[in-house]
């Protein structure tokens, strides 16, 4: 059992006309993590499903495919999962994987049953996940951040010194279309993805975490000459259609998980937006 909210895709000409409340309703994902529950948002943007699972005393099961018209959830889908909470585990068709904070798991198509558990119910694991349609089964793989491809970039003078860790990508743990990773900002750095970019052939979801309750990220979205901001709090995600930039600045340090889906998996297939052209 899980809760699934459906969101539709939007034309950029409509995006310009939205109020703050409407922008938040369409693009911000606020309540992913509820104790003892699996919550999801299904967006029609590349049919990506974004979810959160917080198992406490009981194991949470992701199996049901009714909402997506399938025999079971991963019948025609794949999923990338990263634990952002305390120690927990995932059982994929009987195979158990222990996941510490920041450990990831890729589970391929045709896996019938996924179970999420926490080692300590009073200090639970928090599993953030992104699922995309799939056409082929790739092996299940646990991902340690140390084995990922790490790219260090930015500088303290630009307030954006950070490391991009690629968890699921064509040169690492393989998938049909999901590309997923985590970006960790160095202490005293607050900007991500600036200079920013567009990738016409992929949508992206940013999920921000590891910040105090009263902090926020001022996330920028929209076409480069029609930007809007959206205030994103701890453990919230934001959907970025392919016409939208995605970049943010925090009131404090934070970490985020990015995930992409669409036409290709080429991380470098991006159009940089010159700084001077942003409006
Ligand atoms: O298309 C790539 C994604 O936007 C992110 O990987 C960028 C990012 O993590 C960063 O610059 O901090
Ligand atoms: Zn991007």
TrEMBL record:
Q: Which residues bind Zn(2+)?
A: 197, 199, 204, 246
Please give the catalytic activity noted in the UniProt record: 5-dehydro-4-deoxy-D-glucuronate = 3-deoxy-D-glycero-2,5-hexodiulosonate
Pathway it works in: Glycan metabolism; pectin degradation; 2-dehydro-3-deoxy-D-gluconate from pectin: step 4/5
The alphabetical list of record keywords is: Isomerase, Metal-binding, Zinc
* Enzyme class per UniProt: isomerase
Co-factor remark: Binds 1 zinc ion per subunit.
Superkingdom of origin:
Bacteria
Alphabetical list of InterPro entries matching this protein: KduI (IPR007045), KduI/IolB_isomerase (IPR021120), KduI_N (IPR027449), RmlC-like_jellyroll (IPR014710), RmlC_Cupin_sf (IPR011051)
Query: What cofactor is this protein dependent on?
Result: Zn(2+)
* Gene3D superfamilies on file: Jelly Rolls, pectin degrading enzyme 5-keto 4- deoxyuronate isomerase, domain 1
Q: What are the EC numbers?
A: 5.3.1.17
Task of the protein = Catalyzes the isomerization of 5-dehydro-4-deoxy-D-glucuronate to 3-deoxy-D-glycero-2,5-hexodiulosonate.
* PANTHER family the record matches: 4-DEOXY-L-THREO-5-HEXOSULOSE-URONATE KETOL-ISOMERASE
Which NCBIfam families would you find in this protein's record? PRK00924.1
Q: Which family does it belong to?
A: Belongs to the KduI family.
List the protein's name.
Answer: 4-deoxy-L-threo-5-hexosulose-uronate ketol-isomerase
- Organism this protein belongs to: Caldicellulosiruptor diazotrophicus
Which gene produces this protein? kduI
